[in-house]
Design a protein that fits this description.
144 residues, alpha/beta, Immunoglobulin-like, 4-stranded mixed sheet, 3 helices, 26% helix, globular, binds copper (II) ion
Length: 144
Amino acid sequence: MNKIFMGVGIMVLSLLASFASAAEIEVKMLNKGSDGEKMVFEPSLIRANVGDTVTFLPTDKGHMAASMKGMMADGGKFKGKTNKPVSYVVTAEGLYGVKCTPHMANGMVAVIAVGDSFDTEAFLKGKKVSKKAKARFEIILGEL
Ligand SMILES: [Cu+2]
């Protein structure tokens, strides 16, 4: 009997722990970042765990956030409206590419990184991104 209660107790505890670890992460969309770079997500490298919610906030006007085709670890997609917050729950380990469509040419991109090991080469390989976005992606991936 005691063993059953202990088993249930452990299940409840681990369930509580998994709820507690599901974080809400906020990312600002800015005309100018704290490092002086123009048109940025801040942070541009978003570290998250499976189940976390990442919310992109329209801190400055004129921005939006959208998933990038073929660059979402869990195969999902999202597309926010300009000047509106948008949230995405990451459901698998890996890398996720996020862009502000109107400022793609300015390199306004971000990466959500879930887990510990990443295939950074496969993430960019053959993807259609602007020159500035590619340069920013390379900097972000270099921080992993
Ligand atoms: Cu933008």
